[in-house]
User: Which sequence fits this backbone?
C-alpha cells in the first residue's frame, strides 16, 4: 500500500549540513516533493515535504528522521482564520513560509489563501490578536 | 484664509463642514493645490490601530458590605493582577499585566495568550469579570477577602488612561543574527528574514501634525471606538528627534497620553494582544481630527508615505544593547511595497499596525463630524514642541551606597 503525506521537518542547527532527503530516497525508496525549504548549514532549518512511498518504507523513513533528531510535524490538520478576531495588521505575512497571506494593495486588507496553507502552524502563535486557529 | 476652531465648529453644527481623511487629502492637495485645498477643507481626520503597551484603565468597583480596603492589598481580575496602591476601591489594570501562573518565557518562546489587555477587552465587551481580593483589614474596612463577579455596567467608573499612545513614527525592526528573535515588534526571522514596522504612516495622527500646532492637551479624539481626550504629552515624548525638511520626524518622536470613559468604548477597537516570546498588550484605535486653520496646517496633513522616513534597527544586538546604530532609513511607501533593501538584501516587510483599521477609524471620525455629532475642542495647553528642548533620556545607572 502506498502513502503520501505532507510533513514539516524542523532541523536543529547541527543537522542542516546533512543529506537527509537524499537518504530517504536512496535507503527507503521514497519520493518527495519539496513544498518549501529554508535550510542553511549551521542554522535552524525548516523543510516542508510531500513524502510518498510504500507504507512500510514510509514508516522506516519517518523512524530514520526521528532518530536523527529532526522534529517532525504532520500536516493532517487545518488552520482557519477567525474573521471577527483578525485586525488585518499583517504580522502573519512574512511569517508564513508558503505565502498564504497577502495584502490587497488598495485596501491593505490581509487575504488568507487557504489553498496555499500547508498547516505548519507558524502563524498561530505569531498572530498578535490570536485570530489563527489550528484544528486537530 | 485663517479659520478658527469656533468657525469650524459653527460649520460642523450646520452640517456644512468639509471633512476628509488624511489619506484623501493627499490627492486633493495635489489636484487643487495647497491654497485652494486649505480654503475648502475644514477638518482632516487621522487614524491608527496598533499595539500600545502604555495603556490601562482605572476602575472604581464600588464598596462591598461590609467594606474592604483593596488599597495596599492584592487584587486579581480574571487572575490578572491589578495595581492597588491607590484609594480603597480603585484599581488600575495595565495592558501588559500577566497572571501569576503564566509561565512567561520559561518555555521559550512564551505564548502570553491572556493578560491585562485581554481583561480590558472583555470588560469593554460587557463580559462578567472575576474579581478576587485579599486585604489586611482595618477598623473602618474590616473585610479581608472578596470574591465576586463584576461588570462594566455596574461599577462606578471605568476610565481608560493610556500614558503613552500614538507614537509619532517608529523603528523598523530587523534581525541580523542567525536565530529567530521574539520581540515586541513581532517574530523576527534570522539573517534579515523580515522587517516589521508599526505606524499608519500618512494616516497616523502625530505624523499629520508634526509640530503639534493643533493637537494639544484637551483635544477631543476617537478613542477605542468612543470619545476620548488628549490628557498630556505621552511618556518618552521626544519632540527634538531628528526631522526631515518637511518637519516630519525621522525617528520615534512625540507621544500622547489619552483618557476617556471606557463604558462608551467598543471591544473591536481595544483588542487584547499577544506578542510571542514578549508579552501581552492592548491594540488601541485612536483617531485625531486636525482643524485646517491655515495653509501651513493643510500642507502638514498632505504628507504621504513617500515623505515619511523610518530608521531600520537591528533587534538582535543594537536595540537590546541600547546602541544608537541604525542600518539606514526607508520610507513608508517602500515599507508598504512589501520589500525594502537592507545591507543590499531584499527584505520582505510586515506591519503590526493595521492600515485597514486606521482608514476605518479616520472614516468613522469623518462621519461623526459630518453629521454634527462631534465638535472640535480648543487645546487648553500645547504639547511640548521642538522649542521645549525636551528629549527622552536614557537611564543613567548609579550604584546604591550602603
Assistant:
Amino acid at each position: 500500500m502506498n502513502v503520501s503525506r505532507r510533513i514539516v521537518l524542523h532541523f536543529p542547527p547541527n543537522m542542516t549540513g546533512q543529506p537527509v532527503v537524499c537518504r530517504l530516497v536512496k535507503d527507503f525508496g521514497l519520493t518527495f516533493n519539496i513544498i518549501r525549504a529554508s535550510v542553511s548549514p549551521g542554522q535552524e532549518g525548516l523543510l516542508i515535504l510531500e513524502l510518498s512511498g510504500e507504507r512500510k518504507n514510509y514508516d522506516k523513513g519517518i523512524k530514520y528522521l526521528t532518530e536523527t533528531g529532526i522534529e517532525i510535524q504532520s500536516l493532517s490538520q487545518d488552520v482557519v482564520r477567525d474573521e471577527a478576531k483578525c485586525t488585518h495588521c499583517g504580522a502573519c505575512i512574512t511569517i508564513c513560509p508558503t505565502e498564504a497571506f497577502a495584502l490587497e494593495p488598495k485596501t491593505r486588507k490581509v487575504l488568507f489563501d487557504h489553498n496555499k496553507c500547508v498547516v505548519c502552524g507558524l502563524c498561530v502563535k505569531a498572530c498578535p490578536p490570536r485570530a489563527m486557529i489550528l484544528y486537530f | 484664509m485663517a479659520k478658527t476652531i469656533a468657525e469650524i465648529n459653527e460649520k460642523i453644527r450646520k452640517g456644512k463642514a468639509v471633512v476628509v481623511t488624511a489619506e484623501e487629502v493627499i490627492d486633493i492637495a495635489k489636484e487643487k493645490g495647497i491654497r485652494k485645498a486649505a480654503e475648502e477643507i475644514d477638518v482632516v481626520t487621522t487614524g491608527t490601530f496598533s499595539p500600545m503597551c502604555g495603556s490601562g484603565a482605572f476602575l472604581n468597583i464600588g464598596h462591598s458590605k461590609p467594606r474592604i480596603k483593596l488599597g495596599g492589598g492584592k487584587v486579581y481580575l480574571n487572575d490578572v493582577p491589578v495595581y492597588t496602591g491607590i484609594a480603597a476601591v480603585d484599581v488600575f489594570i495595565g495592558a501588559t499585566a500577566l497572571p501569576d501562573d503564566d509561565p512567561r518565557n520559561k518555555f521559550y518562546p512564551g505564548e502570553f495568550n491572556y493578560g491585562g489587555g485581554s481583561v480590558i477587552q472583555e470588560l469593554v465587551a460587557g463580559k462578567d469579570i472575576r474579581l478576587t481580593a485579599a486585604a489586611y483589614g482595618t477598623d473602618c474596612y474590616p473585610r479581608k477577602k472578596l470574591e465576586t463577579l463584576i461588570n462594566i455596567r455596574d461599577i462606578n467608573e471605568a476610565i481608560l488612561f493610556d500614558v503613552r499612545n500614538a507614537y509619532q513614527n517608529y523603528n523598523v525592526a530587523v534581525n541580523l543574527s542567525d536565530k529567530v528573535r521574539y520581540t515586541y515588534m513581532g517574530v523576527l526571522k534570522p539573517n534579515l528574514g523580515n522587517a516589521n514596522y508599526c505606524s499608519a504612516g500618512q494616516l497616523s495622527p502625530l505624523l499629520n501634525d508634526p509640530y503639534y500646532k493643533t493637537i494639544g492637551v484637551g483635544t477631543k479624539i476617537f478613542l477605542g471606538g468612543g470619545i476620548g481626550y488628549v490628557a498630556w504629552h505621552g511618556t518618552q515624548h521626544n519632540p527634538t528627534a531628528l526631522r526631515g525638511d518637511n518637519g516630519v520626524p525621522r525617528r520615534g518622536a512625540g507621544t500622547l497620553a489619552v483618557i476617556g470613559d471606557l463604558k462608551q468604548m467598543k471591544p473591536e477597537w481595544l483588542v487584547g494582544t499577544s506578542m510571542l516570546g514578549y508579552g501581552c498588550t492592548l491594540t488601541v484605535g485612536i483617531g485625531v481630527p486636525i482643524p485646517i486653520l491655515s495653509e501651513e496646517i493643510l500642507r502638514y496633513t498632505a504628507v504621504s508615505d513617500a515623505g515619511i522616513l523610518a530608521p531600520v534597527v537591528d533587534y538582535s544586538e543594537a536595540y537590546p544593547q541600547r546602541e544608537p546604530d541604525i542600518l539606514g532609513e526607508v520610507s513608508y511607501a517602500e515599507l508598504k511595497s512589501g520589500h525594502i533593501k537592507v545591507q543590499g538584501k531584499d527584505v520582505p516587510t510586515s506591519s503590526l499596525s493595521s492600515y485597514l483599521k486606521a482608514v476605518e477609524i479616520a472614516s468613522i471620525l469623518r462621519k461623526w463630524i459630518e453629521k454634527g455629532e462631534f465638535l472640535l475642542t480648543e487645546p487648553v495647553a500645547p504639547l511640548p514642541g521642538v522649542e521645549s528642548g525636551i528629549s527622552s533620556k536614557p537611564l543613567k545607572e548609579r550604584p546604591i551606597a550602603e
